[in-house]
Write a structure and sequence with these properties.
The complex is a heterodimer of chains A (557) and B (417).
Chain A: H1 59-67, H2 70-86, H3 101-118, H4 128-157, H5 165-169, E1 173-178, H6 183-196, E2 200-204, E3 207-212, H7 219-236, E4 243-251, E5 256-257, E6 263-274, H8 282-287, E7 292-306, E8 316-326, E9 331-333, E10 336-344, E11 348-352, E12 355-358, E13 364-367, E14 370-371, E15 378-381, E16 384-392, E17 395-397, E18 403-405, E19 414-420, E20 429-433, H9 437-442, H10 445-448, E21 456-459, E22 466-469, E23 472-480, H11 483-502, E24 506-513, E25 516-523, H12 527-540
Antiparallel strand pairs in A: 1-25, 2-3, 3-24, 4-23, 5-6, 6-7, 7-8, 9-10, 10-23, 11-14, 11-22, 12-13, 12-21, 15-16, 16-19, 17-18, 19-20, 24-25
Chain B: H1 2-31, H2 39-72, H3 80-102, H4 106-122, H5 139-169, H6 178-207, E1 211-220, E2 226-235, E3 241-242, E4 262-263, H7 273-298, H8 302-306, H9 315-348, H10 357-377, H11 384-406
Parallel strand pairs in B: 3-4
Antiparallel strand pairs in B: 1-2
Helix pairs in contact in B: 1-2, 1-4, 2-3, 3-4, 3-5, 4-5, 5-9, 5-11, 6-7, 9-10, 9-11, 10-11
Classes of the chains: A alpha+beta (557), B mainly alpha (417).
């Protein structure tokens, strides 16, 4: 509909309407149709003018108009729908750790996979166009809602009881009848019947308006507010410090610090249980399937009270709390969450307590404690001092033959000490110590330390001097400050949906002039329910009405 | 426990047959009476009988559900078989709700078969009671999965009413446009293919067909080493399509054709993708044969043959039922399929959203129904166009439910397919 600014928007009832008004805000008379038109009225937003219908839009108005269109909103939804389905064709990059995406898709899925990667679909949901779509949907949510909710609120807030003939006759549900009884009596009977159905009644000079569940009209807008809060909360996760996530190994019995917090978490004991053959279906037992029953890390949380940032001194820890972390039962404390993620049952060395012995006499000078992590750098054993020069937790030799460590896990630990003391040179003599027997043989400890091992020897006396963690639990440590807002958004959105979908705004207008009854009724949803209700109300006043006959039908295409 | 589970399986079968009978009764109510004068009485009487049988069927289904819950020790919605049978129960529930609102027996002609087709389809999946793995052991299993099923069920009734609207309104006159006729009949073919699939599965299962094919699989372990191992796949239908890199097996030829015909393409990554592709090919063959047979018998497109059943139904009412059912389902699905799903994902997987294929397809379902609801705001999308959207919506629902698990593999793959 083309609107010009010169249009006369004054209704015959005397009300001055805003440009773009379809139905007079006061009496409801259709402003553009002539009286011979009997088609069902377009009742969306009660025919009020919306901001987006301004006559000659400027730049900002054009943007506003674009986003305020439901058609645009639906197009955005459909593009997002198609776009997100593209992302499910192959697994997304984000599902892999340590994979070279430029090679992975080519080798795993062939040329098609490579094209998929080149198009950027391997990270669909992080791509600029997808984020743009989400932002546009967000804008559309805000603008669509504002454009409609304010005028609708105004229109519903100041409804006139007495509506124009044309307005009533052109509703979808219309009933006309020549009353033979007393009109006053009939009107009060009807009012009774309407009140029983929980309608709110306003009356004015032979006209009556009954209305119920107007709040349901606000449902969609409340839903949209919830969705906006949800989207903003998701965006807020990129605020520095609001979102932290990492996976870490927790060897049994060793407190590990949680970065940027004063806390240390320790895996006291990890358990994995499997279902017995009796508990599983016979078919599974036959196939030799194994089904886990329980993954559990008994954990202790410590707070560091002193020496926290000192790299040399051992931090002093104070126990805060204990928790059994299971799958589906994460540990939460002070905004920090720990989830059971993975486990490794390979034993890992925590510390050894070897003795320093005289090779010839076998006499021991004493023992010292070598820890795999936070290893001390200086030891004094009897008359000797040992200085830690090098530490390799996972010892190996690279192509050039230089020592290196393959990982930070103590799979093959090696330590280079410089020993000073009696019968040794002033500058000390190096000793390369492998705590594990397998490494002593594999890397030939005897050969490396040929000279010094004629004089001294570093050795553990028994297994009691070795402390080993039986298992390692991998936990996912997270902090997500935005989560409460995500849930608030989701809750508001749900409240809006329920309000909008499980209640309907119903209005019934009645006018009686010279015994002539004219009834019109409108609802935003569920016409079936309204027409039955109107029929039942009329039947309560002894007017036999067929529910189907008063419905003029609005869905004919 | 064993006894309870046996009762459970019996109740399941009883429910299935009761729904079949109820369906026949509904058809009889709508089509059984030729004389116009008594049609209303006939329709009402037999409609009520059919409805009561449906209620008894639902009671049997509830017995199945409760006995399996007690016997299995956890709520039976933990794998595909259990979920599908629960879904069929919810569809009957949603049908009862809509029937009580609209009192329309003709709805039963379409909704009850939807429920028992899904029941039969559920039986295709392994039906043993499995213990819960830790990932599923949570109260959210009860809340999330049941809500999703209920939401799907209302979408299912929305689909049924939309389909009825389309069948009712499509013009079969010789000079009418062909496109709506063809598309509608395609939907009928799709439904027949699903029925054909179950028929094929049960015939081979009845005959006890089983062939094992071995396949070489290369896996990269945590240390980065490639390990080659042999995996075996048990086929319960003649393998037209073998797994990738499969070893030649000794298979009896089918109708003189040497099997397998080919290997599965390498981009199919789901668990046992080849076996599922093989099953799909079989169901299409079975379905098309069945469709051909039906066409031979009725000598008309199925949709055209059904149309007279719906003559007494006002298209506006069907449109209204479809919209109403989708509108009831939408908040339920949003709550169960997105909000509760996010809460559980946050608890079990530590993040509420990670673009896992199942999550994405739940979002797609939601976006599709939001588009549908917004389009109904503009008057043009009522009636036929709206019904089509309702049908497409339910196809997406079915893809989210089955397709994602069968074709794309993701975190929901433990659903036991």
């Amino acid at each position: 509909m083309v609107l010009t600014s010169f249009q006369n928007t004054k209704c015959e009832c005397g009300h001055q309407n805003a440009v773009g008004t379809v139905l007079c805000e006061a009496c409801g008379k259709p402003l553009y149709d002539d009286d011979s038109n009997h088609s069902i009225l377009e009742m969306r937003y009660d025919g009020v003018a919306r901001k987006s219908q301004k006559a000659s839009p400027g730049l900002i108005d054009s943007v506003w108009n674009f986003f305020s269109s439901v058609k645009i909103a639906v197009i955005l939804i459909v593009i997002t729908l198609v776009g997100s389905s593209l992302g499910t064709i192959y697994p997304q990059e984000s599902q892999f750790v340590n994979v070279d995406a430029s090679q992975y898709y080519k080798t795993t899925y062939g040329t098609l996979g490579h094209i998929y990667y080149l198009l950027g679909l391997s990270h669909t949901y992080e791509s600029w166009w997808f984020i743009t779509l989400l932002v546009m949907i967000g804008s559309s949510l805000v603008i669509c809602s504002l454009d409609r909710v304010l005028p609708l609120y105004r229109a519903l807030h100041k409804q006139k009881v007495r509506k124009h003939d044309q307005f009533l006759k052109r509703q979808r549900i219309v009933y006309e009848h020549e009353l033979t009884t007393d009109t006053e009596q009939w009107l009060s009977d009807t009012e009774q019947a309407l009140r029983k159905k929980r309608y709110r009644i306003t009356k004015n000079d032979g006209a009556l308006m009954a209305e119920k569940n107007r709040f349901s009209r606000w449902g969609p807008y409340i839903n949209h507010i919830g969705l906006i809060i949800f989207l903003l909360a998701v965006l807020a996760r990129s605020i520095p410090g609001w979102h932290m996530e990492y996976y870490a190994a927790f060897p049994q019995g060793e407190p590990r610090p949680i970065p940027d917090t004063p806390y240390y978490l320790q895996n006291d004991h990890f358990t994995v249980e499997y279902y017995s053959d009796k508990e599983m279906p016979e078919q599974f037992v036959k196939e030799g399937r194994v089904m886990p029953k329980l993954f559990e890390t008994k954990a202790t949380l410590f707070r560091c009270v002193s020496n926290c940032d000192d790299p040399v001194l051992e931090p002093k820890l104070e126990q805060v709390t204990k928790y059994d972390i299971r799958v589906n039962d994460p540990f939460e404390y002070d905004g920090i969450l720990a989830y059971q993620y993975d486990f490794d049952l390979t034993p890992k060395l925590i510390s050894v307590k070897p003795m320093l012995k005289d090779q010839k006499t076998g006499q021991s000078f004493g023992s010292f404690d070598v820890k795999m992590s936070n290893t001390e750098t200086q030891y004094t054993v009897g008359p000797y001092t040992l200085e830690l020069r090098e530490k390799y937790l996972d010892f190996a030799l690279d192509e050039k033959g230089t020592p290196m460590t393959k990982s930070q896990e103590p799979n093959a630990p090696a330590f280079v000490f410089v020993i000073k003391g009696p019968n040794l040179p002033e500058s000390g003599e190096p000793y390369m110590y492998f705590p594990l027997q397998k490494d002593k043989v594999r890397f030939q400890e005897e050969a490396i330390n040929r000279d010094i091992m004629k004089k001294l020897r570093i050795e553990v006396a028994s297994m009691n001097d070795v402390s080993i963690s039986e298992s390692t639990s991998y936990l996912n440590i997270r902090k997500d400050t935005a989560m409460p807002f995500v849930w608030v958004g989701a809750t508001i959105s749900m409240i809006g949906l329920v309000m909008g979908f499980y209640w309907q705004h119903r209005r019934i207008w009645i006018r009686i002039e010279h015994q002539q009854l004219l009834l019109g009724a409108h609802t935003n949803k569920n016409w079936f329910g309204l027409r039955n209700e109107v029929a039942r109300i009329l039947q309560a006043t002894q007017l036999e009405v067929d529910a189907k006959a008063i419905d003029r039908g609005g869905n004919k295409v | 426990m064993k006894l309870l589970l046996e009762i459970s399986q019996d109740a399941y079968l009883i429910a299935f047959f009761l729904f079949c009978i109820a369906f026949i009764m509904f058809v009889f109510a709508m089509a059984g009476h030729k004389k116009k004068a008594n049609r209303v009485v006939h329709e009402r009487r037999w409609g009520i009988i059919a409805f009561v049988i449906t209620l008894i069927g639902l009671a049997a289904q509830i017995v199945y559900f409760i006995t399996r819950w007690i016997g299995g020790g956890h709520i039976p919605v933990s794998n595909m078989y259990e979920f599908m049978s629960f879904l069929s129960m919810m569809i009957i529930g949603a049908f009862i709700v809509m029937y009580l609102i609209y009192r329309s027996p003709v709805l039963g002609v379409f909704a009850v078969p939807l429920a028992f087709i899904i029941m039969a389809y559920a039986s295709v999946f392994p039906s043993e009671v499995q213990p819960l793995i830790p990932q599923l052991d949570s109260v959210w299993l009860k809340i999330h999965v049941t809500m999703v099923a209920l939401g799907y069920a209302f979408f299912g009734i929305g689909f049924i009413a939309g389909l009825m609207h389309l069948i009712r309104c499509v013009n079969w006159a010789p000079d009418a446009p062909r496109k709506p006729q063809v598309w509608l009949e395609m939907i009928m073919v799709l439904i027949v293919v699903i029925i054909g699939f179950t028929a094929v599965v049960f015939s081979y299962r009845g005959a006890g067909y089983e062939v094992t094919i071995h396949q070489r699989v290369e896996e990269v372990d945590k240390q980065g080493q490639i390990n080659s191992k042999i995996e075996s796949t048990v086929y319960t239908m003649p393998p037209l399509i073998a797994p990738l890199n499969s070893e030649p097996a000794d298979i009896n030829p089918l109708l003189g054709i040497q099997l397998p015909l080919m290997e599965a393409p390498d981009w199919m990554k789901g668990v046992q993708a080849a076996r599922k592709l093989n099953t799909t090919v079989w169901s299409i063959i079975g379905g098309l044969l069945l469709y051909g047979l039906i066409r031979l018998l009725i000598r008309k497109p199925i949709a055209e043959r059904i149309q007279p059943l719906l003559r007494g139904m006002d298209p506006d009412d069907l449109d209204e039922i479809s919209y109403r059912s989708n509108a009831i389902g939408f908040p339920i699905f949003t709550l169960g399929g997105l909000v509760f799903a996010m809460i559980w994902a946050q608890i079990a997987w530590s993040r509420f959203w990670a673009w896992d294929p199942k999550e994405v397809w739940a979002l797609i379902t939601w976006l599709c129904y939001s588009a549908y609801l917004h389009l109904r705001l503009s008057r043009g999308f009522q009636g036929t166009r709206s019904s089509w959207l309702s049908v497409i919506g339910f196809i997406i629902v079915m893809f989210t439910l089955l397709g994602v698990n069968l074709i794309i593999s993701g975190l929901h793959s433990y659903a036991g397919v």
